[in-house]
From TrEMBL:
Start and end residues of each D-isomer specific 2-hydroxyacid dehydrogenase NAD-binding domain: 111-289
Alphabetical UniProt keywords: Oxidoreductase
Class of enzymatic activity (EC top level): oxidoreductase
Family: Belongs to the D-isomer specific 2-hydroxyacid dehydrogenase family.
Name under which the protein is recorded: Glyoxylate reductase
Annotated ranges, domain D-isomer specific 2-hydroxyacid dehydrogenase catalytic: 6-320
GO MF annotation terms: glyoxylate reductase (NADH) activity
Keyword DNA damage: no
One Pfam family hit: 2-Hacid_dh_C
Domain of life: Bacteria
EC identifiers of the protein: 1.1.1.26
Residues annotated as transmembrane: none
Length: 321
């Protein structure tokens, strides 16, 4: 009996796919940092029983309409807004993600952005490397404290809760906004629920971890930034499209807010000439929220297990449909 066919859209470590290879014929796009071309994806999906995708792969109705035997799409991410889930469901295709395993790594990164932006870490490191450090000065590259400040977390899911736990270690006051209140977390994390604009007004650090939905798309607009303190720092480790980047650029340029730490952008990869990259008060990272070796290995293994379970006729571990 012929093995089912699985296409993987980015090169993964061989050890993460070993188990899947026992039950499936695997074809893996051979590049780690180069996305699979759309024409290749359209060809591969015609014969695929399973598809392991990245957040950067657009799996829309055009792609799904080419699928004749596809049973499962495993996305190597918590988010899955790159996939037309409704169209997949209509075709009886299970969509899976990789929650939980990346929670702490992403929270580490989000808090690193807070520290890096507040304390001007990247700017200071470059100052030394560029040979500009000639003497000590009382306010040379002085940033702002993080401890005892107020953090406002927008999107209090697993990652938001993990960021709040880290904030407690810095003796921060914790505010949060979420589509649903979490009374148990208000007790365990000593977090206060606030309406969106009230959170913006009170926070020294505004951290966006919200998923991308019709309600959250562009929620950080001109009005939102004008609601913040002019000393506030904005952090986005959630989804790039929750931010109106032209409004963010304006807010930074006009000193409506003090700085930004960004791991995600509206268009990725971001153009090297993008105005945000020329601003010294911006720390920009290449969407590496979950990028620790340990976590990425676990994510790949979970994605492969999800595909294997569906192809074996069992339920997926982490389905979203």
């Amino acid at each position: 009996m012929q093995k089912p066919y699985v296409f993987i859209t980015r090169k993964l470590p061989n050890e993460t796919v070993t188990q899947l290879e026992q039950i499936a014929q695997i074809n893996m796009w051979p590049h780690e940092e180069k996305a699979v071309p759309r024409e290749v994806l359209l060809t591969e999906i015609k014969k695929a029983d399973g598809l392991l995708t990245m957040l950067s792969d657009k799996i829309d109705s055009e792609v799904l309409n080419e699928a004749s035997s596809l049973k499962v799409i495993a996305n190597l991410a918590v988010g899955y807004d790159n996939i037309d889930v409704a169209a997949a469901k209509q075709k009886g295709i299970t969509v899976c993600n990789t929650p939980d395993v990346l929670t702490d790594s992403t929270a580490d990164l989000a808090f690193s952005l807070i520290l890096a932006t507040a304390r001007r870490i990247v700017e200071s490191a470059n100052y030394v490397k560029e040979g500009k450090w000639n003497s000590w000065g009382p306010l040379l590259l002085a940033g702002t404290d993080v401890h005892h400040k107020t953090i406002g977390i927008v999107g209090m899911g697993r990652i938001g809760e993990a960021v709040a736990r880290r904030a407690k270690g810095f003796d921060m006051k914790i505010l949060y906004h979420n589509r649903n209140r979490k009374p148990d977390r208000e007790v365990s994390l000593e977090a206060e629920y606030k309406e969106f604009h009230e959170l913006l007004k009170q926070s020294d650090f505004v951290v966006s971890l919200a998923p991308l939905t019709p309600e959250t798309k562009g929620m950080f607009n001109r009005e939102a930034f004008q609601s913040m303190k002019n000393s506030a720092i904005f952090i986005n480790a959630g989804r790039g499209a929750t931010v109106d980047e032209s409004a963010l650029i304006e807010a930074l340029h006009n000193k409506t807010i003090a700085g930004a730490g960004l791991d995600v952008f509206q268009q990725e990869p971001i153009d090297v000439n993008h105005p945000l990259l020329s601003m010294r008060q911006v720390v920009a990272l290449p969407h590496i929220g979950s990028a620790s070796v340990e976590t990425r290995m676990k994510m790949a293994e979970l994605a492969c297990r999800n595909i294997q379970s569906i192809l074996d006729g069992k339920g997926a571990e982490t389905p979203v449909t």
